[in-house]
What we know:
Oligomer: single chain
Shape: elongated
Largest sheet: 5 strands, mixed
Strand order of the largest sheet: 3-2-1-4-5
Amino acid sequence: MKKLALGLLSLVMLFSCLGLTACSGKEEYSRMTVDINPSIELMLDSKNKVVSATALNDDGSIILAGETVVGKKADEAVEIIVEVSTETGYIVKGNVEADENTVSISVSANTKNLEKVKESAEKAVTDFFEKHDIQGKVEYVEALKMDALRELAKNNSIYSEEEINEMSEEQLYKVIAIGRIETAQLASQAMRDAYFRAKEYEISLADREETAKVIQAMGGLYTATHTLYKTALDAYSSAIVTIDEWRYDTFVSPDSDYQKSLQNLRDKKADLLEQKRLVASVDVNDQIYAELSVSLQLSEEAYDKALAAYEALGAELNAAIETMVSSLKKIEAKLVEIEESFSDDITEKLNEKVKEIDKTLNEKKDAFFEKFETEHAEDIRKINGDLEAKKQELINSVNSANANV
Length: 405
């Protein structure tokens, strides 16, 4: 039975087709994270230019909203992140300790200029802090180990766990880079998760539908095998549709409890940032300092409560979808069982048709983002619009506070 797996050779070909590397497949990628909480990931090419910028949390999504980071040198991108974080109040000016404005950076790569990337990033931050008279510091944190890197690659591609486990570190960076570029227009993690899982299911289904067509065309003695296989395939298709619809309604839809919880969390974070600015704007000996400190503590408690509720809801919903996926896997196991029992004649015919089937699957892969973007265009616009609106709200709040100083 022909497997869905593309294989490592196809990985290089895939990158070549998308113009992300030369035909020799020699381009190397590295991964940098910048964490101020906002947290942001930058994938860099061998010239240390940003090929993708991805928010690792919701605050990071707000920072990146409307910004042009791709194409910048790594240090330029870091400076943009720090500057926007200051404009929106995540980095606080005034009476604060340096620890409160900590920028944590990690860099992982096989590239020889790893230290150069780290040094230039640190210089970009320290120069910005000095120029704007901000108390802050830079620290380096440990980059992802191979197990975590594999998990990240698996969650941002449609490669199987077996394929991911066979990849080198360099290949994993390539997989992550192309996954990030492919979903660059999707600002939320919920939308990116929905995209990759929908793509995985659609390609798996398309592969098996092509198999069913080949068996059906053989007719005669193979009719019973086709009927058995098609029955299981219809159940598989129905389960996929159910999961995709549930995932959208639960995580992506603006009317979902999950998105409402996220909006509440953003509001609480905006209030927390405002309270931090107020405390930082007065001297510790001022009479109002104690009162503002109490308000800050209450705001922190409200934010922590909203965060706990948001995370608990996410965990509950993820558990529910895992139950649905488990049911899907049982149907998939039945399909695999049938596939493994195919007669030699069917296997031979499938091998004859492998190039045609691969061509169909590659066409579906290439067209998938356009299809997804069309189906979810309104949601994508709303998510991006909400992020930009919240970002502007934070900027206006900072500007107003500065004008009153």
